[in-house]
From TrEMBL:
Protein name: UTP--glucose-1-phosphate uridylyltransferase
SUPFAM superfamilies noted in UniProt: Nucleotide-diphospho-sugar transferases
Pfam families on file: NTP_transferase
UniProt similarity note: Belongs to the UDPGP type 2 family.
InterPro entries: GalU_uridylyltTrfase_bac/arc, NTP_transferase_dom, Nucleotide-diphossugar_trans
Protein's organism: Halobaculum litoreum
MF terms in GO: UTP:glucose-1-phosphate uridylyltransferase activity
């Protein structure tokens, strides 16, 4: 990307990209087969070096003043435990998410007793959903290695999380878009363009919608 930007003389964009890539060593690994989120996380073990780490699922996009992962890191550092972002969702959607079983939700963060992956509505212990932001202590890798694949053959991250001695939940501030399907992805793009009225896409999207809807 840097090469292409340089070749086409887009120096301001090149500067922006370089600023980002200099902040971190970026490694990219493609999961060969659909063996589940748990297996995908296992690919990261060699890069993590026995330290706590953050996991962000790209199909949950959260707009917030303070990045949700920073909110989780704060709690993880305070308690020295794994922490997961939880959000109260409509009960009819519980079967699309990992769901937390908690005693109560008093306080900024609270202990989670158990998790269940994509339960039927009548079996769900709550409507508190895992929304794709986690901070894990490195023990999670031992549990990922120890669990059996789920009936569909996938290694479920949630099954490994159930085996952690301690894990806390925290509601994070922010506006979340679940962009794993086309209508929601499209809505998120339109909303984001319209929310940034100083952004380069604001006028294009506003004009297009106005013209199309007027017809
Ligand atoms: C994954 C997790 C699930 C979590 C969800 C958030 O499921 O397994 O626990 O609630 O992400 O989007 P997936 O959406 O990959 O099926």
């Amino acid at each position: 990307m840097e090469h292409e930007l340089e070749k086409s003389g887009k120096y301001d964009r090149l500067e922006r990209v370089r600023g980002i890539t200099e902040l971190a060593d970026i490694h990219y690994i493609r999961q060969q087969d659909r063996n589940g989120l748990g297996e995908a996380v296992m690919y990261a073990e060699d890069h993590i070096g026995g330290e706590p780490f953050a996991l962000l699922l790209g199909d949950n996009f959260i707009q917030s003043e303070t990045p949700p992962i920073a909110q989780l890191i704060e709690t993880a550092e305070e308690y020295g435990e794994s922490v997961v972002a939880l959000e109260e969702i409509p009960w009819e959607n519980v079967s699309s998410y990992g769901i937390a079983d908690v005693e109560d939700t008093a306080g900024e963060s609270y202990p989670v007793r158990d998790f269940v992956e994509k339960p039927a509505r009548e079996d769900a212990p709550s409507n508190l959903a895992i929304v794709g932001r986690y901070v894990f202590t490195p023990e999670i890798f031992d549990h990922l290695r120890a669990i059996e694949p789920a009936p569909d053959g996938e290694i479920e991250l949630t099954d490994a999380m159930r085996r952690l001695d301690r894990v806390r939940g925290r509601a994070v501030d922010g506006d979340r878009f679940h962009i794993g399907n086309v209508p929601d992805w499209l809505e998120a793009n339109i909303q984001m363009a319209l929310r940034h009225d100083d952004g380069e896409l604001f006028e294009t999207v506003r004009q297009t919608l106005r013209e199309e809807l007027e017809d």
